[in-house]
């Protein structure tokens, strides 16, 4: 890591357990519904099951090969997130951002998740903005704000969240 910035060293130290993993699957265990189905058994693209209110959406970055697949379980009203899991393949920024998303989303309404995804996109895209960090965890990515080279890495999970909200809305 010669020549790495202090920020990069801090990021890699915090997530050193992810540093060499090619795939991080179901990283976020927070908010697991009692008796809920195991998301590892999900199959198909954008599959929907009315029996367990499970939906999924996937997004991939064609330039680098990173991909994020989100699986969500909703409450009986179909509006509140009981559990959100991800299966991510890619760089640490992509995987950690997906993990932050899954931690934050449990208990949210889908409309709130869509709003949060919009705020993350706005926050990341404008380095000069004085807007507050949408999630405290995203402060780690402060140096990436306004950059083009790693913006998609940070935003890939949030794009999948927007797609997921669209899938549920029908």
From TrEMBL:
Domain NIF system FeS cluster assembly NifU N-terminal, residue spans: 55-116
The organism's place on the tree of life at top rank: Bacteria
A GO biological-process term: iron-sulfur cluster assembly
Pfam family, one: NifU_N
SUPFAM superfamilies: SufE/NifU
GO molecular function, one term: iron ion binding
Protein name as catalogued: Iron-sulfur cluster biosynthesis protein, NifU-like protein
Organism of provenance: Spirochaeta africana (strain ATCC 700263 / DSM 8902 / Z-7692)
Lineage start: Bacteria, Pseudomonadati, Spirochaetota, Spirochaetia, Spirochaetales
